[in-house]
From TrEMBL:
<dbReference type="InterPro" id="IPR026992">
    <property type="entry name" value="DIOX_N"/>
</dbReference>
<dbReference type="GO" id="GO:0031418">
    <property type="term" value="F:L-ascorbic acid binding"/>
</dbReference>
<dbReference type="Pfam" id="PF03171">
    <property type="entry name" value="2OG-FeII_Oxy"/>
</dbReference>
<comment type="similarity">
    <text>Belongs to the iron/ascorbate-dependent oxidoreductase family.</text>
</comment>
<keyword id="KW-0479">Metal-binding</keyword>
<protein>
    <submittedName>
        <fullName>1-aminocyclopropane-1-carboxylate oxidase, putative</fullName>
        <ecNumber>1.14.11.9</ecNumber>
    </submittedName>
</protein>
<keyword id="KW-0223">Dioxygenase</keyword>
<feature type="domain" description="Fe2OG dioxygenase">
    <location>
        <begin position="195"/>
        <end position="294"/>
    </location>
</feature>
<dbReference type="GO" id="GO:0046872">
    <property type="term" value="F:metal ion binding"/>
</dbReference>
<dbReference type="InterPro" id="IPR044861">
    <property type="entry name" value="IPNS-like_FE2OG_OXY"/>
</dbReference>
<keyword id="KW-0560">Oxidoreductase</keyword>
<dbReference type="InterPro" id="IPR027443">
    <property type="entry name" value="IPNS-like_sf"/>
</dbReference>
<dbReference type="InterPro" id="IPR005123">
    <property type="entry name" value="Oxoglu/Fe-dep_dioxygenase_dom"/>
</dbReference>
<dbReference type="Pfam" id="PF14226">
    <property type="entry name" value="DIOX_N"/>
</dbReference>
<keyword id="KW-0408">Iron</keyword>
<dbReference type="InterPro" id="IPR050295">
    <property type="entry name" value="Plant_2OG-oxidoreductases"/>
</dbReference>
<dbReference type="GO" id="GO:0002229">
    <property type="term" value="P:defense response to oomycetes"/>
</dbReference>
Length: 346
């Protein structure tokens, strides 16, 4: 395990230069000087309107954001600031634990439903990413909570409350997205079979040479929808019209990211967009994405009501287990796995 131990363990020796295993080829570096500021162009949607006579307008806004950007931000989402601050504090406390305590959760086996690891897939990748992460499956909650760390002392309580609240937010958004596609309100939720939910606590330490590496390189998310909470430190960037756009964090908001499965269900109306995480030399960054996904046995394909002579099915049907296996084997790459499932008429 020595060669795959945590990034934090590498940094404990006080490195002043990025070790070679993190250095990207010149053609695959972030080119940070060519990144554009978001200038408010990533839509911020007030979800309070979903519970008002303005519901149709908010659903239209969500549909437009899914179609044009694949990303949007939400406020008045139902999670109190106290809960948001608590989960962020819990993540920070976990990564401040002594290495011996953190390593109790360590594994490079991707089938483990609770695991601490580094980079993305240490078994297959040639260049590592500047990230440590704790990944937790969290639905159904009773199946997984006993696996979670019990240090920090409030870890299980805070994570269970947060993950349950995020699930309620996801289900609200899925109803709105279904409606925005002209489908029945419960269409997408029913497509997921028993559903799955997992989350990650991502820790990006300060990097002495951030121009040489990534926190995470450009990728699309293989799941259905991702709800991202991030601290005050910028790092998320989204590809729009061939240009990387930096998304500045807004307190008390979440970023909603359309995943590959949503693009399939929408028959390419909605887009799963490339995004990446960059690092900086002055401050650690923490992000907490929640990934909502179909059950492994769920059969995914374009919604029948979105297929017609002018819009033939863009993808064949497949199980989520089949999709995720191909995604994991490929690793994070600029080509998303959707191309492997396209039909000949697409």
């Amino acid at each position: 395990m020595a060669s795959t131990k945590l990034l934090l363990a590498d940094l404990a020796s006080g490195v002043r230069h990025v070790p070679s295993k993190y250095i990207r080829p010149v053609s695959d570096r972030p080119n940070l000087s060519d990144v554009h500021k978001s200038d408010g162009s990533i839509r911020l949607i007030d979800l309070k309107g979903l519970r008002s006579p303005n519901r149709a307008l908010v659903i239209k806004q969500i549909g437009q954001a899914c179609q044009t950007d694949g990303f949007f931000q939400v406020k008045n989402h139902g999670l109190p600031d106290e809960m948001i601050n608590s989960i962020m504090r819990t993540a920070r406390e976990f990564f401040k634990l002594p290495e011996s305590e953190r390593l109790k959760c360590y594994s490079n086996d991707p089938t483990k439903t609770t695991r601490l690891s580094t980079s993305f897939n240490v078994k297959t990748e040639k260049v590592s990413n500047w990230r440590d992460f704790l990944r937790l499956h969290c639905y159904p909650l009773a199946d997984y909570i006993q696996e979670w760390p019990c240090n920090p002392p409030l870890f299980r309580k805070n994570v269970s409350e947060y993950s349950t609240s995020v699930r309620r937010l996801v289900l609200t958004l899925l109803e709105a997205i279904s409606e925005s596609l002209g489908l029945k309100r419960d269409y997408i939720e029913k497509t997921l079979s028993k559903q799955g939910q997992h989350m990650a606590m991502n820790y990006y330490p300060p990097c002495p040479q951030p121009e040489l590496t990534y926190g995470l390189p450009g990728h699309t998310d293989p799941n259905l929808i991702t709800i991202l909470l991030q601290d005050h430190v910028p790092g998320l960037q989204v590809l729009r019209n061939g240009k990387w756009i930096a998304i500045n964090p807004i307190p008390s908001t979440f970023i909603v990211n359309i995943g590959d499965q949503m693009q399939v269900i929408s028959n390419d109306r909605y887009k799963s967009v490339l995004h990446r995480a960059v690092v900086n030399s002055y401050e650690e960054r923490i992000s907490i994405p929640t990934f909502y996904c179909p059950s492994p046995d769920a059969v995914i394909g374009p919604a029948k009501d979105l297929i017609d002579p002018d819009h033939p099915a863009a993808y064949r049907e497949f199980t989520y287990a089949e999709y995720y296996e191909k995604f994991w084997d490929r690793g994070l790459a600029k080509e998303c796995c959707l191309d492997l499932f396209k039909t000949s008429t697409a």
